[in-house]
Amino acid sequence: MEAPAKIYLTEEKETLLITLYAKAADSHLQNSILHDTYSDELLKQIDYDFSKFKDIGNNVIVIRAKEFDEWIKQFIKENEIITVLYLGCGLDTRINRINPPPQVNWFDLDYPEVIKLRKTFYSDSDSYHMIESSVTGFNWFAKIPSDRNTIIIAEGIFEYLEREEVKTLINELTNYFPRGQIIFDVMNSFAIKSGKEKLKATTGAVHKWAVDKISEVDNLHPKLKRVTDLPIFKSRYMRKLPFGVRFPLSILSIIPAYKNMIRLLRYNF
Question: Could you tell me the pTM of the whole model?
Answer without folding.
Answer: 0.92
